[in-house]
Known about the structure:
By secondary structure, the chain is of the alpha/beta class. Helices cover about 50% and strands about 15% of the residues. The chain has three domains: about 1-55, no CATH class; about 55-190, Rossmann fold (3-Layer(aba) Sandwich), CATH 3.40.50; about 210-370, NAD(P)-binding Rossmann-like Domain (Rossmann fold, 3-Layer(aba) Sandwich).
Amino acid sequence: MEKIIQQFLALVESRNQNEPEFLQAVTEVAETVLPYIVQHDIYYGQNILLRMVEPERVVSFRVAWIDDQEKIQVNRGYRIEMNSAIGPYKGGLRFHPSVNLSVLKFLAFEQIFKNSLTTLPMGGGKGGSDFDPKGKSDTEVMRFCQSFMTELFRHIGPNRDIPAGDIGVGSREIGYLFGQYKRLKNEFTGVLTGKGVSWGGSLIRPEATGYGVVYFTENMLNHHKDSIDGKTVVISGSGNVAQFAAEKCNHLGAKVVTLSDSSGYLHDKDGINEEKLAHIMHLKNVERKRLSAYLEKYPKASFFPGKRVWEVPCDIALPCATQNELEIGDARTLVANNCKAIGEGANMPCTPEAITHFKSNGVFYAPGKASNAGGVAVSGLEMAQNSLRYNWTREQVDDKLKDIMSDIHSSCLHFGEEKGNINYVKGANIAGFVKVADAMLAQGVV
Ligand code: NDP
Ligand code: 2IT
């Protein structure tokens, strides 16, 4: 088996050189899914995984725009249309200086499995740009988004490819992107998700990823006769996912003691309660300030520049910032401090070595493609509401989100059983794979 995996990865590596993040994501899937393929005649010999690692289409384009000093700026835009076997391409757009082909291909690849797990009919895609919204004025962000969409619009559509937000793309950016698409096509359609509620958005979409991570983590703890109530939780990031993960932890009786950004981390021993979290949301989302500004209002807390949250003792860790933000040294510290569970809000935040360390020390580990699927799941519900031309209530959407996260957890149990324990990585990868593979087999070699 080892040889089959190595041969497969060598081929993928030879075709995708200088793409370390993409290879990291493919390796994790290959190690768990190839043994399953070999054991199942219907999949064996069909080169299904080899087809899945090859994007159906990659679009790369120039995004030229004019800044407030009237200087011409040039960025690079992308859309990776990875797999459309079970539905139109679906996945977010990331605006961050670190964006490149490798990062977007890893995200698009993970998205295939995640979207399949949601039970909704969505294929996998991802896109974005190396544009950095940080420090830009609203009009600069608007001009960039308009230029970006002026090219992207010809590749997407409500039945073809439906982008959404990710790092650096929130409600402001979705608004500008939607406005430009509507203007170019002269059509009001559900071509993007994460829209404002008054123009086709879904209630609970902003909360969905963060709430979903906490629902999944609660499912995982309940399965092991434990719960989030009363636990100390460490969260990284302070963006969309981190904020609503913190909110749901508070709802369920846990104490959140950290949040972070790329400058360092905030530690509030007394817990970031509802009132403090509301202040953070205002600082980050309205004033667009750095997290360290929290100390101006709450001077008893501490900010540690250039450091990571994982050194703070906790029962539960929720990495909600970015890929590879939790490395082996951090995993050792968490285990030494008796951390019981990891729920990934970000995509691929834990390195492979960190994951191995968690598993070998009995820490429950929920991989992002299962635990952060709530965001895209509610995007799927937004698409359904757009098609119906109807809106569900907050409670209706939240109940559907809870059910979907619970179903994903059950799928992980079903496919992840391993010597009496649950391997959530194996469970999520195989459960996600089976549905897409069956569709691909039915549709022939395309
Ligand atoms: P936001 O842009 O709202 O927030 C990102 C947060 O992560 C910020 O606090 C940011 O700090 C921090 N961050 C980003 N890059 C880095 C970096 N290189 N090093 C350290 N910190 C960093 O993004 P989201 O909250 O939407 O996304 C966070 C993660 O969740 C991503 O991995 C994303 O792919 C994943 N995700 C998001 C979903 C969604 O619906 N939004 C759905 C599923 C997964 P700073 O401001 O200093 O850059
Ligand atoms: O990584 C992700 O799942 C997202 N950024 C959300 C994608 C979506 O289409 O809602």
